[in-house]
Write a structure and sequence with these properties.
The protein has 190 residues and is an all-alpha fold. The protein has two domains: 13-47; 61-177, TerB-like (Orthogonal Bundle). Helix content is 52%, strand content 0%. It has helices at 23-42, 61-74, 82-96, 102-112, 128-142, 150-162, 167-177. This is TerB family tellurite resistance protein.
């Protein structure tokens, strides 16, 4: 509980003619400032501006690993498409509520072109649920531009192996996402 102590103040001279020179008015002003600071601290984080433009902004571990997996899958065809950066940012924002800086995504795309070693540590510190979410992000990237090619499918297999997920888990994700399985439960390739 905030208590305000009012002390009688006697002013003489030029200070008496200045606004806010009496203690009650000054006390109300100070109380209003303290109340606004307190309300900011109690505001839910979702309603505050995003931290994405901050220099020190850190993504969660799951989002970071999903970013790596999506970049790896996006560059399976051997090139970097700047449009992929927008798709990856939108997908991560939708899935995890975090949007990496555009430059960070472009850098990730350039670093993963033909670099299988970029995913060597993928998923090693994540729970099963988090690894499943990373796989879902990779599948979303693979299916972003239509039917999945054999080259992209092979890249998804690399991600699946690295995340230590069973094929059945991947099929469940695919079924849930888009129904890209045929009647036998096999992935439909282009």
């Amino acid at each position: 509980m905030l208590r305000v102590l009012w002390l009688p103040v006697e002013s003489h001279g030029p200070a008496a003619a200045m606004p806010f020179s009496d203690a009650p008015t000054l006390g109300v002003l100070v109380a209003a400032i303290l109340l606004s600071l307190l309300m900011f601290r109690l505001t839910p984080a979702q309603s505050r501006p995003r931290r994405e433009n901050s220099v020190n902004y850190q993504l969660s571990r799951t989002t970071t690993e999903a970013l790596t997996a999506m970049c790896y899958v996006a560059t399976a065809r051997g090139d970097v498409d700047p449009a992929d950066a927008d798709f990856i940012g939108d997908a991560l924002d939708e899935m995890f509520g975090e949007r990496p800086l555009h430059g960070r995504v472009l850098d990730g795309l350039q670093r993963t072109v033909g670099a299988r070693d970029m995913i060597d540590a993928l998923g090693t510190t994540l729970s099963f649920q988090q690894r499943t979410e990373v796989m879902e992000a990779a599948i979303r990237m693979a299916a972003a531009y239509g039917p999945i090619t054999q080259e992209t499918y092979d890249t998804l297999l690399d991600v699946t192996d690295q995340l230590d997920l069973r094929p059945q888990t991947v099929k469940e994700i695919l079924r849930r996402l888009s129904g890209t399985l045929d009647g036998n439960g096999e992935m439909v390739l282009a």
